[in-house]
Amino acid sequence: MLFGDDHVKRYEETDGEVGYEWLKGSKILVLTTTGRKSGEPRKSALIFGEHGGHYVVVASKGGAPEHPDWYKNLVAQPEVRVQVKADRFPARARTATGEERSALWATMAHEWPDYDDYQRKTEREIPVVVLERLS
């Protein structure tokens, strides 16, 4: 089972042939953010969904009380890089709000039903992030 840095490494080495499909039929992309403190690239393998021609990810951190670092990084610098299989491209990340967030949450809970459990475990509203391709 692939997790963390090993997941990212195998995904990148194989253009997603290894690591794109994950648990329970979920699909994975690699998100590269810029470290808000270090300025260095930071990569995360994340479950994603699609909506309106954009990719969508959830900053759940398993229902932890604080947001994941990758989310904090993209809030500080919303210009990111995305890899879906062999397709690599720049994107702008934004946090969905209101009705859009509700609709996207439903989409993502279908992709990974555990998200509903994660939300129940924490007092924070788990962010839903839209990745809008720039090129």
From TrEMBL:
Family annotation (NCBIfam families): hi_GC_TIGR00026
InterPro entries with a match to the protein in the record: F420H2_quin_Rdtase (IPR004378), Split_barrel_FMN-bd (IPR012349)
Xref: Pfam families: F420H2_quin_red
Family, per entry: Belongs to the F420H(2)-dependent quinone reductase family.
Protein name: Nitroreductase
UniProt-listed PANTHER family: F420H(2)-DEPENDENT QUINONE REDUCTASE RV1261C
Transmembrane segments: none
Taxonomic path: Bacteria, Bacillati, Actinomycetota, Actinomycetes, Pseudonocardiales
Record SUPFAM superfamilies: FMN-binding split barrel
Catalytic activity: oxidized coenzyme F420-(gamma-L-Glu)(n) + a quinol + H(+) = reduced coenzyme F420-(gamma-L-Glu)(n) + a quinone
GO MF term list: coenzyme F420 binding; oxidoreductase activity
Gene3D superfamilies: Electron Transport, Fmn-binding Protein, Chain A (2.30.110.10)
Organism for this UniProt entry: Saccharomonospora piscinae
GO cellular component, one term: plasma membrane
